Amino acid sequence: MPRILVVDDEVEMGNFFKFFLEGKNYEIAVAKNGSEARNALQEYFHLILLDLKLPDTDGITLLKEIKERHPTTEVLIMTGYSTVKTAVEAIQLGAYDYLEKPFEDLDALEAVMDRALSRALARREPGEDEELTRRKQVLNSVGFVAGKSEKMLRLLTISEKLAAKNITILIRGETGTGKEVLAHYIHAVSSRSEQEFLAINCGAFTEALLESELFGHEKGAFTGAVSQHRGIFELANRGTLFLDEIGEATPAIQVKLLRVLETGEIIRVGGERPIRVDTRVIAATNAPLERLVAEKRFREDLFYRLDVVTLVLPPLRERCEDIPLLAEHFLKSHYAQERPLRLSSEVVAALTGYNWPGNIRELANVIAQAAAVCDGPTVLPEHLPSKINVQNRSDNKPHLSLPLEQKWRDDVAAGLGAFVDQVDVKAGFDLPAFLDSIKEVSNEAVKKLIEKSLDAAGGRYPRAAKWLKTTPRVLRYLYKEK
């Protein structure tokens, strides 16, 4: 008999589920707080309905305990709209899904409970193989190579859960990580998949042109407006609109975007009548929006409207195990019809060891360049751009196997390169302060290295100096004076 535990401090909620599941032959228990839930967890439950806010603990803490004690128990998080962010964190920690209170669609509620119960009872979802096949088909249809890394697989699972919710999503990630492709995937697995998916880069247009593109304009609204024009919000009605580089939007555009998110209405340029639109917004940025808000360059109210749920795409250097698969994909998708090519093991090692400041976009370009100059059936190290070979000149071994001196140079260069990529120089940047900060950080790192060596050497400068390849006098000077 399936056993269900409802953990909620509202007595009415426990009564609701007892009534809702009446006649289903389930055994139902109710706990009103964390203490009662922990006592109940001495026994096994197939499904737990867990409220995030409890009088004596929080749902996230209790979720961790549940998963530690009963890994096969499925947990459905119950939350209000204001705690959706925490609910997404719960999915990352192993919750099956989250349910928003109040429960308006009881059929949908019953369906998600049935799926969670089936998974717990069978230890795998019925039809899971078919689901994995479906996922691969959708991924292929939007050109998304997810790879096998745990970070990406977890991100896909969360994205699929969020796709079913009609909420705004903010995607963050460095340049070239695939933010638009992830947005397209979310659209493809949502109930809006049969409708339009449209994308626009907020930094690619002037303010006037972006306003017209987003909201449309009436005939005669400005010079050259010879006819009525529907904006992208109207064209994506009932579908999904992807707003890339949202941090580049001007203050005037930000105000209009805020109005759409709050009211679901747009007004064309030169128009007077509000037009209702049902357009899901997925925004993306590689800019630090919090800093832009602090600098009064991005509206705080718009930031919170966009930041209902945030998905973070990991940089390629944090998912090195996916690099060979991605490289083979780019090679086959672009060059398989012309001539079959393969990557040598040395090339795979070199690609895996590179830091990829430009992420997946840079990898695709490198494969294109290598294939263009390759005159045989195999891509060899000499076909790679010099930046790849230089960084991997240590026998082309993966980055973690490089000599330590070379590794720290590569890591520092990659970190600074990633930071510089995010700097909006047109908005102003304090270069002298940046240089001072780099000096402070480097001095602190040197201090820690010296202290670590002195500790290991028992305080003896000659021995520590020998390890650090310097002299005792220089070591004393660096540590005491610098």
Gist?
This protein is of the alpha/beta class. Helix 7 packs across helix 8 and helix 11 crosses helix 13.
Biggest β-sheet: count, sense, barrel?
Answer: 5 strands, parallel
The fold-level CATH name of the largest domain is: Rossmann fold
Corresponding CATH superfamily of the largest domain: P-loop containing nucleotide triphosphate hydrolases
The shape, in one word, is: globular
- Alpha-carbon distance between the two ends: 71 Å
CATH class of the largest domain: Alpha Beta
Number of helices: 21
Mean pLDDT: 85
Number of strands: 16
Helix/sheet category: alpha/beta
> Rounded to an integer, what's the Rg over CA atoms?
27 Å
CATH architecture tag of the largest domain: 3-Layer(aba) Sandwich
Count of domain modules: 4
Helix content: 40-55%
- Spatial strand order of the main sheet: 2-1-3-4-5
Q: What is the beta-strand fraction?
A: 5-15%
Catalogue the unreliable spans: 124-129, 393-403
Explain what this protein looks like in three dimensions.
The protein is globular and about 80 Å long. With 482 residues, it is an alpha/beta fold. It has four domains: 3-128, Response regulator (Rossmann fold), CATH 3.40.50; 145-312, Rossmann fold, CATH 3.40.50; 316-406, Orthogonal Bundle (Helicase, Ruva Protein, domain 3); 430-480. The protein starts with a strand and ends with a helix. A five-stranded parallel β-sheet has the order 2-1-3-4-5, sandwiched between helices. It has helices at residues 11-20, 34-40, 59-69, 84-92, 106-122, 128-141, 150-163, 179-188, 207-215, 232-235, 251-263, 289-294, 300-306, 323-335, 345-353, 359-373, 386-391, 404-422, 431-456, 461-467, 472-480, and strands at residues 3-7, 27-31, 47-51, 74-79, 97-100, 169-172, 197-201, 216-217, 229-230, 240-244, 265-266, 275-276, 280-285, 309-312, 342-343, 378-379. The longest helix has 26 residues, at 431-456.
